[in-house]
Write a structure and sequence with these properties.
This protein is of the alpha+beta class. Among the domains are: 145 residues, Immunoglobulin-like; 123 residues, no CATH class; 131 residues, Heat Shock Protein 90 (2-Layer Sandwich). The protein is built from 16 helices and 20 strands. Strands 1, 3, 4, 6, 8, 9 and 11 form a 7-stranded mixed sheet that branches. Strands 15-17-18-20-19 form a 5-stranded mixed sheet, covered by helices on one side. A 4-stranded antiparallel sheet has the order 2-13-7-10. The protein is globular and about 100 Å long.
Length: 614
Amino acid sequence: MMKFTLTLFLLLNSLLCANTISIDRETKLKDILSLSEIYIDKTKNMTIAEISSPNINFEKNNQDLLGFGYSPDFTVWIKFTLQNETDKPIQKILEYANPLTTNIELHDPSLSLVHKDGLLDMNKERKSINPIFILTINKHESKTYYLKASSFITTLIIKLKLWDQENFYNKELEHQFYLSLFFGAMAILAIYNLFISVFARDISYLFYVLYILGVIYHQLLYTGVFFIYIESQDFINLVIKLASFAGVLPILFLTLFSKYFLKTEQYPKFHVLLNTLLIVTPIIILVPIFSGYWSGSRNIMSMILILFLLVLTIYATSKKNRQAYFILAGWMIIFTAISLMFLASKGIFNIYGYFPYFIEVAFIAEAVIFSIALSDKINSLQQEKNNVHKELIVQKKTENTRLEIQVKEKTKDLNTSLDEKTLLLQELNHRVKNNMQMIVSLIRLQSNDIKDIKMKNIFLTTENRLNAMSQLHELLYQKDNISHINAYEYFSNLIEGLEETYSDEIDINYIIDTDLQTEQAISAGIILNELVTNSLKHAFENDNGQIDILLSKDRDEYTLVVKDNGIGYDKNLCSKSFGLLLVETLVSSKLAGYITTRINNGVESTIIWREIRE
């Protein structure tokens, strides 16, 4: 009988303590949401006395993050119990890991205390990005807390973390440091593109600068950085009221950038629809703001605008609009980022758990795409310079003696224009190279904190591709005549960087007897980077190997051969490799050539294309 009573007591005690979270001084970090219970209050009027009564049935939660989307019609209560198993008091920090929830209350029924935080009731002493609460549990004490969260403006996303104070503040400093890097990089990009807009007199890049500034403002709000430095609650309330317009503002500026960059007037029907959306969207966004009525119209219009531009860009791509390829890549990155943010807000898939700074990296990746677009525009300026030079030669041959004075004046003006454009091209190449090096540094800094080998290799591959383009701009900056570049100098500098990354024990032989056209050098450099990287990474089981690089030209036809004496690979297994797909795409679309691959005692890739006729 005694044994049965003891067993029953232990069983009842385990049931009563099933949701108790044990902590001690060694507890550095713990996700407590999955160890808590939740209750949905659809009346939004329940008090702490009512919610803590035995009649309220809290449900067990097993998720570390709860995403309810836009949820103005109910309040979520979180119940959790902390047990101090030590003989000394313990003080911990409870972090509500979402800075955009409008109202948060932490109730301590044992002391009849309530602590408030959130966008509409911010703790003025808080300097952390996310709301925090200081919890003190006496020795051997078990204390139950109730957290109330509601959000009628932003999406309701709940994630609770219990921190040791030292670890929390170290994490907070690191988090704010990474965000400052992002904002600094975006500010530099804005200044850089502003100079490009002034020197190139291209209004599309002025709108791109406004887009970057809109992104900075949006991310200051979205990450919560903006709110911790503003003391006036009235001003915070005003910013929150206008936040929906601030959210759509970057999309409007990016739409204007795409309009002028793609020159949509060449597609009349799309052009008319795009102008209509540019007029209607701000009106639909502003009316709910000033009427005091909150609706999802801003999100719907934003998605309509994004989808329309995606369709327009795909259509422009089908019409062989050269600039559309860059815009499409940028839009795909933005659309993917927005989709993942939406899935996280709904609690379907939390990308932040795998990649905390994915949205910042997405914006930087988009900046890389438009930097490549800028390189393409530089090539267009080079072509314009060549055309002006031809015009000068024709005028010299056709003008007669009677117009000699006028010809000299015109020649002087044209030479001045050529000098200005040459200086501009050199400066642009220098700035593009510096911009890419900055982005490479940011990627390298980010990759230092990544433990996943596969993700680290992706970052390393991206870094090498950017270096391939950066090397070309460095050579162009150093030369007066940039219509052709020294292929041996370009290829050897490029491969030297790869050897430092992977292996310097592999013998690499060069047989190069021709220069390359600047217009084709970027694509050729990226292709060579991909092929040699594949050989260095996969072809050799040890450091004893050889790679041969041959570049020749017969009349107007280039032939590039890259071969190794490695172990080869299975075409069926590697057919979907992004690197090989990138090589095939560049060969066919950028060089208008073809590639053949032979696998026999190694891999030999041969690429043949024609020189661009002037």
